[in-house]
Structures are given as structure tokens and as C-alpha cells.
């Protein structure tokens, strides 16, 4: 678990495109310290019982760590703008989201948004595959995610986010009885696109938004419903495009055929653009990594995690401002 606070050095991480278990990550990833950057951050390692209560924790700052007393605690953080983050399928994708949250919120010398992170093992090497259609399998995953949400609430989080395309398919179930703001990634995307005031490319039609995902249904559903609620027409790749272009692009990427993967993904995006979509949402961590950052096609694409990060930072800054105003009023009143 991590919360914003003390200072640690920033590292650039070079990782392979396909992330497996943690042992593979350790053997294949290389980190290089960059002395030019530093972020305000500290790490809190916490163990909980099955009810989400704390029974042991450690505080880490830099290279040293101090063990805290092994006793239950009510809250790790007390900041009014603390963000609780439920990690997703990939540890790397969670770290990428954290990087955006840290750097975007600390621009212009501002303090980094305080946060607590809790990863979900059921979505990453758990006993049941995340794509399982079994009712019992989904129930276990939902229960695990709900426990993580409760843990974050007890940790002092004042809002909850899930930077995971798949987890948001169960957002309603996970957020049930949650009294905190719990941002849905599909809502964040739909809201930003609505505010962009896009114009239809075909006369007499609605604004069309394309969605590409490596998961045919479960990762698409959170976006499809929210976009349609905002009046957008959602365009998905047809069966032929999916089977003969999109999935082969992923297979090529996994086999380290970088150029082949890029060419196939470009074709898949172009297929949707030909169908007069304004924007193509890349609802997959793998698809986000394939094209180089300078590829002009990315100007027609959207990373949902960017929208989630922007919404989270906007909320955190507003919550902090509200807390400061409230404190000043109390001080002047006394």
C-alpha cells in the first residue's frame, strides 16, 4: 500500500510488452535511477485480516524502514483528498496509472495527491481466470474487490478508483453501500467526450465512438453503456476484424513481432475510422503499448486511464481546497 508523503528517488522502468508473474517481472525488468527527478512519496506496507482490519504495518521512507506497533489502527491517512486505488489485472498497468497520478498532480511544484494502493490477486494469477463465465468465479472476484474497497475506506481514502478495464465491469457490485465517491472509468470517458462537443462525421447521425479491446465483452461493457447514456453511438469491430486483425496484432506483440503488431493495430483503428467514428477508445493495456507515442493515429485514439487520472486529480484538488476553506472559516470563527 502506498500513500503520498515522504521523498524517494524516481526510476525509469524498462519492461517487456507482456507481463506475467512477479518473478518474471523481476528477472526481465531493469530499473535505472534518475537523479534529476524526485517525487514526494512514501510507502506503507499493511497486512489485514479477512475483515479488512489492520494488524501489522511498516512505514518505508527511502532506503530505511521503521516497524510500527502490531496493533489495529483506524486509519493510515488523514488527508481530506486521499485517493484509494484498487489495482487491476496487471501490476505494471497500475504503476503506469500511479505515474500519471503523481506527475500530473505535482506539476508546477504542487504537492502530489496522497494515495493508498491495494492490488487484487484474484485478477492477477488468482485461482480462477478473470474471463471465467462461472457465476461462482465472478462472485469470488467481486467479493475480493469489495474487501479491497472496504480496506481502502478504513485506510483513510476519501474516494475510490479502479484503473482496470475489466474490474469496472463489476463497478455497481463493488461500490454497493460505499459512501465515498467511487469513479467509474466509463463515466470519466463519456463525460470528457461530452464536454469536447464533438460533431458527427456523417450528417444526420449521432457522434460515433469506436472501442477496441482484447476482451470481447467484459472490458467493453463499462464503456458501451456509459457512452450510450450520453447519446453516443458505440462502434465495435466486426467479427472478421477482430479475428483476423485485432487478435493477431496482440499475438504478434506477444511474440515480439513489434512491426507486425503495429501494422495490424493501425489497420484495426483505420477500419473503425472508415466507419466515421470520431475517437477510438483503446480499452486494453496491451493495445495502449503497441503503437509508438509519436504515431499520428494516436491523435484519433483515447486512453481511458488518462480520463480517470484527470477526474481523480480534479476531485483531489477540489477536496483539498474545500478542506482549507473550511479550516480557515473555523479558525476565523474561533
TrEMBL record:
Q: Name the residues that span the membrane.
A: none
Q: Which UniProt keywords apply?
A: Isomerase
Instruction: List the SUPFAM superfamilies hit by this protein, alphabetically.
Output: Aspartate/glutamate racemase
The keyword Isomerase appears for this protein? yes
User: What Pfam families does the annotation carry?
Assistant: Asp_Glu_race
Q: Classify the source by domain of life.
A: Eukaryota
**What molecular functions are annotated in GO for this chain?**
amino-acid racemase activity
For this protein, the record's InterPro entries field holds: Asp/Glu/hydantoin_racemase, Asp/Glu_race
Protein name, per record: Aspartate racemase
Q: What is the lineage of its organism?
A: Eukaryota, Viridiplantae, Streptophyta, Embryophyta, Tracheophyta
Amino acid at each position: 500500500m502506498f500513500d503520498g508523503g515522504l521523498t524517494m528517488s524516481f526510476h525509469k522502468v524498462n519492461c517487456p510488452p507482456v507481463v506475467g508473474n512477479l518473478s518474471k517481472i523481476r528477472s526481465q525488468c531493469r530499473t535505472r535511477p534518475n537523479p534529476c527527478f524526485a517525487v514526494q512519496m512514501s510507502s506503507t506496507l499493511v497486512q489485514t485480516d479477512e475483515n479488512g482490519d489492520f494488524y501489522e504495518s511498516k512505514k518505508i521512507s527511502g532506503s530505511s524502514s521503521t516497524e510500527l506497533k502490531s496493533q489495529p489502527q483506524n486509519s493510515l491517512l488523514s488527508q481530506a483528498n486521499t485517493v484509494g486505488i484498487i489495482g487491476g489485472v496487471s501490476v505494471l498497468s497500475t504503476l503506469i496509472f500511479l505515474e500519471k497520478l503523481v506527475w500530473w498532480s505535482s506539476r508546477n511544484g504542487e504537492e502530489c495527491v496522497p494515495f493508498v494502493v491495494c492490488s487484487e490477486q484474484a485478477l492477477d494469477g488468482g485461482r480462477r481466470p478473470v474471463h471465467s463465465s462461472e457465476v461462482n468465479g465472478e462472485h469470488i472476484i467481486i467479493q475480493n474487490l469489495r474487501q479491497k474497497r472496504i480496506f481502502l475506506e478504513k485506510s483513510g481514502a476519501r474516494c475510490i478508483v479502479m484503473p482496470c478495464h475489466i474490474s469496472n465491469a463489476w463497478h455497481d457490485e463493488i461500490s454497493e453501500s460505499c459512501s465515498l465517491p467511487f469513479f467509474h472509468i466509463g463515466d470519466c470517458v463519456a463525460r470528457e467526450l461530452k464536454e469536447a462537443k464533438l460533431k458527427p462525421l456523417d450528417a444526420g447521425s449521432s457522434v460515433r465512438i469506436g472501442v477496441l479491446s482484447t476482451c470481447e465483452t467484459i472490458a467493453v461493457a463499462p464503456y458501451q453503456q456509459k457512452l450510450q447514456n450520453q447519446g453516443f453511438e458505440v462502434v465495435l469491430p466486426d467479427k472478421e476484424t477482430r479475428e483476423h486483425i485485432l487478435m493477431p496484432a496482440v499475438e504478434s506483440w506477444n511474440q515480439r513481432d513489434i512491426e507486425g503488431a503495429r501494422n495490424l493495430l493501425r489497420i484495426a483503428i483505420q477500419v473503425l475510422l472508415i466507419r466515421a467514428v470520431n475517437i477510438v477508445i483503446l480499452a486494453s493495456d496491451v493495445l495502449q503499448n503497441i503503437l509508438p507515442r509519436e504515431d499520428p493515429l494516436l491523435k484519433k485514439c483515447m486512453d481511458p486511464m488518462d480520463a480517470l487520472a484527470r477526474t481523480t486529480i480534479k476531485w483531489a484538488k477540489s477536496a483539498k481546497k474545500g478542506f482549507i476553506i473550511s479550516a480557515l472559516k473555523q479558525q476565523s470563527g474561533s
